[in-house]
Amino acid sequence: MVSIETSLPIVWRSNPHGNEYERARVGRVFNARRPKRFPRAVVEATTESQVVEAVRLAIREKCRVSVRSGGHSWAAWSVRDDAILIDLGRYQHLELDEGKKAIIVSPSTTGRVLNGLLSTRGLMFAGGHCPDVGVGGFLLQGGMGWNCKNWGWACEQVVAIDAVDAWGELLHCDTEQNSDLFWAARGAGPGFPGVITKFYLRVRPAYTNVLNSLFFYPISEYRRAMDWVIKASPTFDEDTEIVAIGAVAPPETGISGHCVLLNFLTFKNDEEEAKSALLPANTGRPQGFALELTNQPSSLADQYRIQAGANPEGHRYCAENAYIKNDADVPAVMEDAFTTAPHPKAFCIWYAMAPCSRRPLPDMALSTQSDHYFALYTVWEHESDDERCQSWVSNTMRKVERHSDGAYLGDSDFQVRRTRFWADANAERLMDIRRKYDPEGRICGYLDIDDASGVKGLENRHEWMQ
Ligand SMILES: Cc1cc2nc3c(=O)[nH]c(=O)nc-3n(C[C@H](O)[C@H](O)[C@H](O)COP(=O)(O)OP(=O)(O)OC[C@H]3O[C@@H](n4cnc5c(N)ncnc54)[C@H](O)[C@@H]3O)c2cc1C
Question: Quick one: which of 434, 369, 370, 150 has its CA closest to 265?
Fold first, then answer.
């Protein structure tokens, strides 16, 4: 619907057609645990100039701006009280420069759409694992994409952005122009002080031979399986992603109760090369598994299907995470989480980050990582389970967090847990940049308790130290 005051496609909270407002407010929010927060209006922008106009409208209305790209923030950061929410879902832009192996995309572009186009040209972008995550939120946080442990953070492939600043001006930002904003765009997460309208990305050649080896262990073998995979990962083949998953065992494994799944996914251009990459896992995995599936042919499209199945739509979610210290007894720190998930659909992961976690990062806001990424993805169906599932997440994390260097913005909720997201110097510079580019707190920023952080931003400290 088009309002009287502006030509923008806008739905006001005061709209008499309540369903229209509710659709615009949360219809594109992935987590079915809907927030009780109510924007003043939602602008469903279809062009870059409408994004500019929407920010200027917020300035005239003297209210804040919130942004939605793919709608996959677990904590629904886009939905903020009394803000003008700029929903970028209908603004779609994909411009491929094959010669330069580069692509310009609008922020609501999903991994599936991006790779759908790239794959027709033999190219790939190592974006998020879930097919429908938007590049907007994902890249701002750093982006733990496919084979992040070897290929690095997805935001390292961002060469420039276009963004509307808090005064409603469209800026091009790269290492030469507006370089502060470009620095912040790679790791500020939802505290970025502007609205990004375009990402300029480097892409990589696609892989024709994707193979998967999977080893299912009963939980009684947890320690043996984890000790081995943690030791094997840092020096494993460089095109292979490695993850350990704790969940209720699928029936075909014959395991009753929880299991540990060790999952090796290799991306190559030759079948023999892919098989030899997986050989050390196929022959070196410890005994005690209940089921092994080795060298399974796969593809990015298959992997997206698997991810979408593990993270079904229409469900309630609570995610949490920690970078466990390199010198911790990592299996011991994670054991409770791996063995006590509160719902059959819930799962947790240990995601190998070494060797990339050991190399210096480029100069950008993103600055915290360790060899061991640990995350809880608690999935359930009914509101009546909210308290039980959320308490399980908090109680489990309370024991883990003291063994951590910090956390990843992407799987965090600042209303629930306050911790460290950046190196100290990076956090200071980031908060300075936010103050410089958005002194009035026009862009909503980090959603903490009571949405109070505003221009101040986050403290970047473990909560038990405060
Ligand atoms: C099922 C699922 C799987 C996931 N898998 C991965 C994964 O493999 N790797 C990983 O790293 N993360 C993963 N995530 C986390 C995901 O990257 C974050 O939740 C991310 O915020 C989602 O981006 P979005 O654009 O879809 O979200 P949104 O909810 O649209 O955006 C989140 C916030 O980011 C900011 N933002 C977004 N776009 C812009 C913009 N254009 N300009 C300024 N600010 C903006 C806003 O503050 C916004 O509220 C997953 C999440 C889900 C739900």
Answer: 150
Give one DSSP letter per residue of 231-276, joined into a string: HHGGGS-TTEEEEEEEEEPPGGG---SEEEEEEEEEEESSHHHHHH
Counting from 1 in the atom list of ligand 1, the atom nearest the Cα of 190 is 47
| Those residues with Cβ within 8 angstroms of residue 273's Cβ, 6 or more apart along the chain or in another chain | 209
Q: Could you give phi then psi for residue 404, rounded to 5 degrees? A: -115, 155
Task: Give the residue from 33, 115, 104, 154 showing the smallest Cα distance to 408.
Answer: 154
What residues flank ligand 1, with Cβ below 6 Å? 30, 66-74, 77-78, 88, 107, 128-130, 133-134, 136-138, 140-141, 143-144, 190, 192, 195-196, 311, 410
The segments of the chain whose pLDDT lies below 70 read 1-5, 466
Does residue 28 lie within any of the structural domains? Answer: no
Distance, in Å, from the CA atom of 157 to the CA atom of 104, rounded to the nearest integer, reads 12
Domain encompassing residue 98: 94-205
**Residue of minimum CA distance from atom 31 in ligand 1:** 137
Residue 217 alpha carbon to ligand 1 centre in Å: 32
Asked if residue 151 and residue 296 are part of one domain, the reply reads no
Same domain, 294 and 369: yes
CATH code, domain with 234: 3.40.462.20
Q: What is the pLDDT of residues 333-364, one digit of tens each?
A: 999 999 999 999 999 999 999 999 999 999 99
Q: Among residues 205, 224, 245, which one ends one of the domains?
A: 205
- 433 Cβ contact list (under 8 Å, min separation 6): 180, 181, 183, 184, 188, 193
Q: Got the DSSP string for 449-466?
A: GGG--GGG----S-GGG-
Q: Are residues 167 and 283 in the same domain?
A: no
Q: If DSSP codes are grouped into helix, strand and coil, which group holds residue 365? A: coil
Ligand 1, pocket-test mutation among 48, 52, 73, most atoms within 8 A of CB: 73
